Amino acid sequence: MKDLPKYTGDKSLLLRTEFSNNPAWAALCKAVAVPSEEGFLASLDCISDPAYAGLSAEKLLTLKAKDLGHYFMFLADKECLTSPEFPILVVDLNREPGRTFRVIPSETWGVENNLSISNMDFYEFADRVDKDGVFRGFK
């Protein structure tokens, strides 16, 4: 498995781990780049490298991502790229390593913005997912 890029404080990572659907990946990257109604954007690098094929949340923990400055990570796995909603897997690498939830692209900006500046904690999103484990915003 290839080493992860070091976090430079510029952008969080959205790692592609499923490589069977190029159009879905392109659509996902486009969707996370759409600003909110208020103009907020997720600051993400969409990384498509076959070296990360099949990377799971569990395997991500072994890559020492936290040592590289990553406290959370977004994964575009099979479930993400085969579902019409594109529910991105979010993995906690800091307080509760391995805890996950999913987020729809239109809410990714809130998760990324707030976690990257420690304005909110991972659990504040993870504890507010819908019954299917997907965060669709605060209601």
Task: Give the count of structural domains.
Answer: 1
CATH topology group? Rossmann fold
Order of helices and strands: EHEHEHEEHHE
Using the coordinates above, name the CATH class.
Answer: Alpha Beta
Alpha-beta content class = alpha/beta
Strand content: 15-25%
Radius of gyration: 14 Å
Number of distinct beta strands: 6
Helix content: 25-40%
Sequence of strands across the biggest β-sheet: 2-1-3-4-5-6
- The first-to-last residue Cα distance is 39 Å
Mean pLDDT value: 94
Report the principal-axis shape: globular
**Could you give me the name of the CATH homologous superfamily?**
Anticodon-binding domain
Largest sheet features: 6 strands, mixed
- CATH hierarchy: architecture: 3-Layer(aba) Sandwich
Low-confidence stretches: none
> Number of helix segments?
5
Description:
26% of the residues lie in helices and 18% in strands. With 139 residues, it is α/β, with parallel strands linked by helices. The chain has one domain: Rossmann fold (3-Layer(aba) Sandwich). It has a six-stranded mixed sheet with strand order 2-1-3-4-5-6. Strand 1, helix 1 and strand 2 form a beta-alpha-beta unit. The chain is globular and about 40 Å long. The model has no long low-confidence stretch (mean pLDDT 94).
